[in-house]
Structure formats: structure tokens, C-alpha cells
């Protein structure tokens, strides 16, 4: 909880905050990340852009559009534009795409997508939640 409070305070001061919440499923990581989002919105008088991305759902949408390259480019282009301009981005549930099988390696596509998301957020406030450990990440 203290990490979340400190992250909001630093964000309000204009610092590029990066926070990663790790832990088992059901421990409140997503709830805490959304609390950060709401606190930022309230303390900024709703003058900040906050974007929430569920990583598993994003991958599902991108996979669905794989057979239609135009649709895939449109989704990726729109997402990257939002990611690069949002004041705060929450990327929720990294690791859920593994389906609970932490022993399997995530695909190159999943890794490339995540790398693109994180590169788009360099020096910008980002909160990530995951059920993976630091070693598994």
C-alpha cells in the first residue's frame, strides 16, 4: 500500500514512475493498480489520461486480427498511439497468457508485443501487474 501511495505522489510531481506488482492470483494486484489510477485521476481533477490494458485480452484481440493484416496494424497503431500519449498506463495480468503453465515459455510474439508496450512507455509512468516472479519474467 505504501508503494502505491508513493507512486501516486511521485506521479503527481511529474516523475516517470514505474511500478511492478507481483504475487499469486487473487492477492489484490489489479485492485491496487486500479486504486493508483483512480487516485491519480482524482488528485489531478481528472486532468490526466489513464489507460488500462489487460495484457491477455490485448493478445487475444491481436491474435484474432492476425489473419487480417490491416486490422492488426490498425489495432497495434491505435494502441501504440495511446500508449505513447497516456499520462499513466496500467498493463494488467502479464503472465496470464501462459494459462497457469509457468513452466512453458511464452511465445516470441507475446514477448515482442510486451517489449513493444514497454518500449513505448520509456520514461513515462507505468504500472504492471503479474503473477510471475522476477525470475520468471
From TrEMBL:
SMART domains: AAA. One of its GO terms (biological process) is DNA replication. Keywords: ATP-binding, Nucleotide-binding. SUPFAM superfamilies: P-loop containing nucleoside triphosphate hydrolases. It holds the Pfam family IstB_IS21. The keyword Protein biosynthesis does not apply. Residues 15-129 form the AAA+ ATPase domain. This is ATP-binding protein. It comes from Enterococcus pseudoavium. The lineage of its organism: Bacteria, Bacillati, Bacillota, Bacilli, Lactobacillales.
Amino acid at each position: 500500500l505504501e508503494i502505491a501511495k508513493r507512486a501516486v505522489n511521485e506521479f503527481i510531481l511529474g516523475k516517470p514512475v514505474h511500478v511492478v506488482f507481483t504475487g499469486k492470483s487473487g492477492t489484490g494486484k489489479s485492485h491496487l493498480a486500479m486504486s493508483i489510477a483512480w487516485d491519480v485521476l482524482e488528485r489531478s481533477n481528472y486532468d490526466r489520461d489513464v489507460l488500462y490494458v489487460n495484457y491477455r485480452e490485448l493478445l487475444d484481440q491481436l491474435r484474432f486480427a492476425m489473419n487480417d493484416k490491416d486490422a492488426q496494424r490498425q489495432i497495434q497503431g491505435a494502441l501504440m498511439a495511446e500508449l505513447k500519449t497516456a499520462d499513466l498506463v496500467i498493463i494488467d495480468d502479464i503472465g496470464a497468457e501462459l494459462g497457469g503453465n509457468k513452466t512453458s515459455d511464452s511465445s516470441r510474439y507475446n514477448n515482442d508485443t510486451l517489449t513493444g508496450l514497454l518500449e513505448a512507455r520509456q520514461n513515462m509512468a507505468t504500472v504492471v501487474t503479474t503473477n510471475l516472479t522476477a525470475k520468471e519474467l
